[in-house]
Amino acid sequence: MKQIIGLFILVFITFACQTEVKQFSKLNSNNTNIDFVNKLYETNTRNYFTYPYMYLGGGVAAGDFNNDGLEDLFFTGNMVPNKLYINQGDFKFKDISEEAGIEGDDRWYSGVSLIDINKDGFLDIYIAVGGENEPNNNVLYINNQDNTFTEKAEAYGINDDGYSMHSTFFDYDKDGDLDLYVANYPPTSFKAPVDYYKYMIENHEDRDSDHLYRNDGDHFVDVTNESGISNFGLSLGVVASDFNNDGYPDVYISNDFNAPDFMYLNNGDGTFTNDILNSLQQTSFFGMGVDASDFNNDGWVDLFQLDMNAADNFRSKANMSSMNPEVFYQSVALGLHHQYMQNSLQLNQGNLNNSSPAFSNVARWSGVSSTDWSWGGLFADFDNDGWKDLYVSNGIRRDVNNKDFYNEHRAFFDKMENDPNYKNKEEEVKLLSYLEKMPSEKLSNYLFQNQQENGFENRNLEWGLDEKTFSNGVVYSDLDNDGDLDLVVNNLEDFASIYRNNNTNSNFIGFKLEGEDNQLPVGARIHLKASGKYQMQELNLSRGYLSSVSPRVHFGLGTTTELEEVIIEWPDGRKSELKEYQINTYNNVVYNEGTSTVPTKKEIQPKAKQFETVVQKDAFIHKENPYDDFKDEVLLPHKNSTLGPALAVGDLNNDGKEDYVIGGAIAQATSLYIQQANGMFEKVDVPIFEKDKFYEDLGIQIFDADNDGDQDIYLASGGNEFKSDSQGYEDRFYENKGNLVFERNISAIPDTRISGLEVSVSDFDHDGDLDLFVGGRLSPKKYPYPSNSRILENQSTSGNIQFVDVTQEKNPMLTNIGLVTTSKWVDIDGDSWEDLVVAGEWMSIRFFKNNEGKSFKEVTEEIYLPDHRGWWYDIEKGDFDNDGDMDLIVGNLGLNYKYQASVEKPFRVYLNDFDKNATYDIVLSYKSDNTEYPVRGRQCSSEQMPAIKEKFKNYNSFANASLEEIYSDKMLEESLKYEITSFSSVYLQNNDGKFTAKPLPYQAQFSNINAMVVKDVDLDGNLDVVLGGNLYNAEVETPRNDASYGLWLKGDGSNGFSAQEPRKTGLVIRGDVRNIKPIKVGDHTHLLVAKNNQSLQQIRIN
User: Under DSSP, is residue 346 helix (H, G, I), strand (E, B) or coil?
Assistant: First the structure.
């Protein structure tokens, strides 16, 4: 019996162990024999305080150095020898570093790049050298083909003496050999002012620049200046790839601090153009490593850049720096770009501006924005499902940004920096003892599984990658040739991590490419189709951070066992279609000029795209007036003074052609443009508009108020610049007297001074004239206190225009309804009476049934949901499912913003006088691990409420405190409070007068939707939606919404929509879009796009 029980226990234990095998297994250094430790030796005179680049770490490279079919590993050491481990199979390695001659000297070795520089078929090693001590020359180890190496950087002319971090080899001039880009990080004070970076970009020394070396055969020539890449940047990451699909490799440089990143587009003539301000709308601030790969399988190479934003509430508030608004805006003004402290996942939208690629940062949507102090990111298909996943290395040796540490020892450090009596006294004051007091915390790395249309999901725990380390360089490599990618990480002050991939349930195919004349064909692309699904990979070795990945190209295939197509696009432009290959193995492919083809460029007349931007004559330019909303409302989530311009279309001179009116900011007059016979628009001066230019025009309706046959104008005034009840918030009615003469009719509308934005028109009472809904946008300087909205009934008589406020009589629920941004009159239930739908910021979508013009009854709960709050910006209607009733599209903030919300973790706002100083305070909050925390940190919060500094004496105590502990349960309960559970833009399907919500396609969630036009664009009988958005007025710690380039959602007539790619449709709408209106120009419908602080855009629909 005991034997049976023992056998059962053994079987149970065995089964349990088997079921617990995870995707990755950490291998012990005693078993692998890889004992490399990138150990730092800090002393009183040599430590982070004396050399602040101490913790930048080392790199790792994977490659088959002895050509035995197994990939070997090379590690760079900062203060320890480099190491080379030969793979002996079964994850057993042999250290041959000393006999190989690659250990190096006392130099500070950083990034490593592999290259067969002499084309002998054996991999060589190029290492970037930084450090505070000379020499700083980079080194090149030539493989002698016998497991020994000889250093020859000087002989090849690439012993770069800058402060190098990394490098990449690529054939930029397409002459058949590999050239070299070296990324340098010149020593720069962390306290350098913003204008220092601008000055150095224009006045740097040659050594401070990155360097480009042209390969002239057996020697390299420095062509930095003539190629146009002479620069000044604090370069931590470099990656070469063809971002605009023109066949020439480009270069992206990730820079630290205020130094702007560089996007060098290859001009094809030996020169480059830095296109960073045009191609990318924003970048990371503390730019670390960078990777380039096609993560969404659309044939365009995307980018991933690391920063140091923590997802953890405590670490984000205790360690991370606050963004300084003054410095941020100065940086933008100097052309250093919009830089934000977050990771950036730049989705390549294609060439939307001639040959320039356009990227959308979708890091928030994808879930990869915040991984703490991160160094390297690598795209690779770790589960072999055909979609590239994303690995992130993480951790800093000490929390060098810990605010409490510096506050505690501020007096000491001030003396060390400024007191001459402390100069060179590091030994006497025992400087290292202070450093050892600095907090230090190891962190887990991340592995994000590609969820395709749902972004990425962190699987580090489930996949066995939750080890905590200080990790830097990382590579992938199939170390055991079993068809899945293993991971190798260079850790600071710990053994290197080797993770075996245990994937067994899917197929793969691999390729080892050999180019012309034995050249490693860096830049070659492999295009693959399997089961109708497309994948593309580009052979680039220097990727991630300071590292060089496997030279073999690996594709996961999932359950697929047959391929429809494999095409190799070689660096010289020739293409080879493979007919013979094997699944589940690595295929050797050798370039053969005889069997490869050169694609012929056919002279085909390009087909007109669906949309085309029209060149305008003297286009209107909106000019926003300067105003700092945050001066009075420190914790505002965004400005409320930059919500224009308004836009409306109508025939204002009765010539049968549509004209338009566009609003101005304060001190900019409303403008009227009349359509000419040739389809152009000319501005007409209207004296009363010029007189009334000190209003902010946020809402416009053109309609015939008095049924006299001409179109009048209603203008809603808004903004946040004036105090409540100011004259600046008067709405205005301009009566059309004919011949483009307009007079302001003050008595026509009530004298109600509410900061508004939305105006909509309907004959809600069926009396033959048009009535108005006027939405209140906000209570000035009291965000988010609700504002009043109104119904103005048209009670005009002959010769007397009169609108009467009937809100209390008809719909008293509009009083204090909220921060209204949009409304729509729509017959919900088919009774021929138009009902009213209203939405806004922090509001639910509210439905009011029209009781035959007598009154309105709210029916939100009966026909939709009792509480579906959002930051709603626009509502449009249409019968999208062709069933005879009106459905709705409602634009929300989107899913790519810093603020995220769900039912389990709502996003909230509170308004109260928390510190009892007779001013209202704003508190934004979010949930993490079932605890509610303030969004903003101690510094910003105390600027609004100084008492917080008294209550929480240091940053750690504030970081540990919940929202209730900071503000008290009682005060929070007494506050005005709103909460949001979803920021998704939605389609509301009308089912017999009741609505069901469905999220719009994921591409429509990349930014907020401010404006939409409903139209059957392609005349297929189904209604489509053209949308635009973005939100540029966020406070500086919240990255602006700028990922939208406009989008055409093609309707299928059955409640479905498919996003049409801008690069294919021609619909390209950049900027802070506020309004889009259709306008008839000749036989075509055009779109007018009004943008804040930008020119009006005109787009023809073909």
Answer: strand
Residue partners of 91: CB distance under 8 A and separation at least 6: 27, 31, 32, 479, 480, 498, 500
Which residue type does 679 have? G
Phi-psi region of 261 (alpha: psi -120 to 50; beta: other; left: phi over 0): beta
Note whether 538 and 579 are within 8 A (CB). no
Give the integer Cα–Cα distance in Å for 258 and 274: 17
CB of 1029 closer than 8 Å to CB of 1040: no
Q: Which residue has the tokens 């049409």?
A: 1060
Upper half-sphere CA count for residue 174 (Cβ side, 13 Å): 18
DSSP state of 1000: P
pTM of this structure: 0.97
Please check whether residue 820 is in contact with residue 843, taking contact to mean a CB–CB distance below 8 angstroms: yes
Which one-letter DSSP state was computed for residue 370? Answer: -
**Average pLDDT value for the chain:** 96
Residues 6+ apart with CB under 8 A from 256: 185, 234, 235, 236, 286, 287, 288
Cβ neighbours of residue 615 closer than 8 Å, sequence gap 6 or more = none
Q: Which two tokens stand for residue 589?
A: 């492919």
Cβ(897)–Cβ(1040) under 8 Å? Answer: no
Consecutive H or E run containing 948: helix 947-951
Give the other-Cβ count within 10 Å of 532's Cβ.
Answer: 7
For 841, other C-beta atoms within 10 Å of its C-beta total: 24
Question: Cα separation of 168 and 123, whole Å?
Answer: 14
**Nearest-angstrom CA–CA distance, 471 and 497:** 9
Burial level of 1036, CB count in 10 A (0-12/13-18/19+)?
buried
pLDDT by residue (tens digit) across 687-706? 999 999 999 999 999 999 99
Per residue in 590-639, pLDDT (tens digit) is 999 877 787 765 555 567 899 999 999 999 999 999 999 999 999 999 99
Which pLDDT score, from 0 to 100, does residue 601 have? 58
Nearest CA to 875 out of 988, 1015, 978 is that of: 988
Instruction: Please give the sequence-ordered ranges of beta strands (E in DSSP) within 189-336, or none if there are none.
Output: 211-215, 220-222, 235-241, 250-255, 262-266, 272-274, 283-284, 290-293, 302-305
The Cα 660–Cα 1077 span in angstroms is 9
Q: Around Cβ 602, how many Cβ atoms within 10 Å?
A: 5
Q: Based on C-alpha coordinates, what's the Rg of the chain? A: 32
How far apart, in Å, are the Cα atoms of 798 and each of 397, 620, 705, 706?
80, 36, 11, 8
932 pairs with which residues across the strands? 927
Q: How many CB atoms lie within 10 A of CB 289?
A: 31
Confidence of residue 5 (pLDDT cuts 50, 70, 90): very low
Alpha-helical regions (H) of 313-396: 313-318, 325-333, 363-366
- Scanning 312-438, the segments in alpha helix (DSSP H) are 313-318, 325-333, 363-366, 403-408, 410-418, 431-435
**Rounded Cα–Cα distance for residues 346 and 301 (Å):** 9
Give which of 758, 621, 769 is closest to 701, Cα–Cα: 758
| 1075: nearest Cα among 702, 727, 781 | 702
- What per-residue confidence (pLDDT) applies to 13? 43
* Burial (0-12, 13-18, 19+ Cβ within 10 Å), 205: exposed
pLDDT tens track for 294-331:
999 999 999 999 999 999 999 999 997 778 899 999 99
Residue 452 sits at the vertex; the CA angle it makes with 451 and 458, to the nearest 5 degrees, is: 25
Integer Cα distance of 283 and 118 in angstroms: 37
Q: Which two tokens stand for residue 358?
A: 């356009």
pLDDT for 15 equals: 43
Q: Six-digit token pair at 624?
A: 């926003």
